[in-house]
UniProtKB/TrEMBL annotation:
<dbReference type="GO" id="GO:0012505">
    <property type="term" value="C:endomembrane system"/>
</dbReference>
<keyword id="KW-0472">Membrane</keyword>
<dbReference type="GO" id="GO:0008104">
    <property type="term" value="P:intracellular protein localization"/>
</dbReference>
<comment type="similarity">
    <text>Belongs to the ODR-4 family.</text>
</comment>
<dbReference type="GO" id="GO:0016020">
    <property type="term" value="C:membrane"/>
</dbReference>
<keyword id="KW-0812">Transmembrane</keyword>
<dbReference type="Pfam" id="PF14778">
    <property type="entry name" value="ODR4-like"/>
</dbReference>
<protein>
    <submittedName>
        <fullName>Uncharacterized protein</fullName>
    </submittedName>
</protein>
<dbReference type="InterPro" id="IPR029454">
    <property type="entry name" value="ODR-4-like"/>
</dbReference>
<feature type="transmembrane region" description="Helical">
    <location>
        <begin position="428"/>
        <end position="451"/>
    </location>
</feature>
<keyword id="KW-1133">Transmembrane helix</keyword>
Length: 459
């Protein structure tokens, strides 16, 4: 039994180009589209690059007998391969964060001699390219470097049973042209109490991201007058024929409240961690996708970009998400302001999102730290996704660099004693009142004394 895999025609160009060269050995990632119902759509083969001076990601080894029985009836000789899983996993982790909503890694592929297919399935299917999706096995596509024929093994959510590889027909077509871009500007306004201990601050940052992600998940997405979650329409019904104009969506979520849970009477807050500004959401969905699917893709993109940007900011001051108390890192003052006895506020600009064209209408994304040049984004995208256009002049900022800010604010009480800022203001006001009353009484007493000491004739 064979199966069909909807594939963009550019994949055919990639395979045919490889077959014409002497370099017939390649391993990489399968870039696909999600949210199109039950259909699997393959958009591009993304080869895993080899670092300069390092061994190739995949190499052929001597004949392998793993998994083969001595009584096997098959007379075909098997070829072994060795895959650098660490490089493949690193490549996957980078690519995942460069993809907008609606696009995802759906598996891995091997392009090489058919005799190495069995070993390729064994090596590549163990990769966990998307742990959040709960898939234990990764989908694997093996392409014969001689004939171009493909064999496919679907992903599985459990270790066993595992479906056997089956012949796969790559059904080529203009898949990218059928994608429609949907954008959204999502305002951020959240805050949580923080403490002087660095590890507690990291915990509160994660909690802040989690609560904001929950707000995004529970929000309602509107395209025009249509509420996507409650609509049975398809995206094509809102898009004019042959139009590539991006659709602007609106996400309405519940208002954010200043959370105070977790701070007891004996555990006084050292300040407030706030994030404010706006996120730029971007998703590419098939024009036949339902509106609820569009809403899910857009929300997933907003959650991912928020978490990744905060993680990038935290990594500068706290590598590995571990922040030592009393850290003196200068690159992220918002994480160290609470350890400074004289600091009352510190602002941190989160990395801004930029885009680089792939093929119309699809864009890839990256993030620039404050002061970083667009050439850095172009180089990162080009390294991880060689199919993208490499011209730095094409890098476009989708939002203002200073649009999203994370701040730490210390109450006035922490700057001079243990009293709160309200108590300090009240004490100052009372001192003014007492001084004024004392001045009035002193004036009255002096007047009475002056009159009592004058001669009676004057009185």
């Amino acid at each position: 039994m064979s199966r069909q895999l909807q594939t963009d025609r550019r994949v055919k160009d990639h395979i045919e180009g490889k077959l014409k060269t002497t370099q017939h050995l390649e391993v990489g990632l399968l870039l696909g589209a999600v949210g199109q119902g039950a259909k699997e759509t393959l958009l591009q083969l993304v080869p895993t690059p080899t670092e300069e001076g390092q061994q190739p990601v995949v190499t052929l080894t001597s004949a392998s007998t793993q998994g083969a029985s001595s009584k096997s009836k098959s007379s075909k000789a098997q070829t072994g391969i060795k895959v650098d899983n660490a490089s493949l996993n690193l490549h996957a982790s980078l690519v995942i964060n460069l993809l907008p909503g609606g696009l995802a890694l759906i598996g891995a592929y091997f392009l090489g001699p058919a005799a190495a297919n069995d070993q390729a399935f064994l090596e590549l299917s163990r990769l966990k390219l998307n742990p959040d999706a709960g898939a234990f096995w990764t989908a694997v596509l093996c392409i014969d470097s001689s004939s171009g024929k493909a064999i496919y093994q679907a992903a599985s959510a459990s270790a066993r049973p595992r479906q056997s590889p089956v012949p796969c027909e790559l059904k080529y077509g203009p898949m990218l042209e059928n994608l429609q871009s949907v954008t959204c500007r999502y305002p951020l306004q959240s805050q949580l109490p923080v403490h002087c201990n660095g590890k507690q601050m990291i915990s509160q940052i994660k909690r802040l991201v989690a609560e904001e992600s929950n707000r995004i998940s529970s929000g309602l997405v509107f395209l025009g007058r249509e509420c996507c979650q409650n609509s049975n329409k398809g995206l094509h019904e809102l898009v004019p024929a042959a139009s590539q104009t991006s659709l602007e969506a609106i996400l309405l979520s519940s208002p954010s409240c200043c959370a105070t849970a977790g701070t007891t009477a004996s555990e006084e807050s050292a300040g407030c961690l706030a994030v404010q500004g706006a996120l730029h959401g971007l998703a590419f969905c098939h024009k036949r996708a339902s509106l609820p699917e569009v809403a899910n893709c857009l929300k997933a993109d907003l959650r991912k970009t928020l978490a990744y940007r905060v993680a990038l900011a935290a990594a500068c001051a706290a590598p590995g998400e571990e922040l030592e108390a009393g850290s003196t890192s200068q690159c992220q003052p918002a994480f160290t302001a609470l350890s400074d006895a004289h600091a009352s506020r510190a602002d941190l600009m989160l990395p801004s999102r930029v885009t680089l064209p792939y093929q119309e209408p699809v864009l890839f994304c990256d993030y620039l730290q404050p002061g970083e040049e667009t050439t850095a984004a172009a180089e990162r995208i080009q390294w991880a996704l060689p199919c993208a256009q490499a011209d730095p002049a094409l890098v476009a900022a989708s939002e203002s660099p200073a649009q999203t800010i994370m701040s730490t604010v210390r109450p006035a009480s922490k700057l001079s004693g243990k009293r709160s800022s309200t108590d300090a203001l009240l004490g100052l006001y009372l001192r003014w009142v007492i001084a004024a009353v004392a001045t009035v009484f002193l004036a009255i007493a002096l007047t009475i004394y002056f009159l009592s000491t004058q001669p009676s004739s004057i009185r």
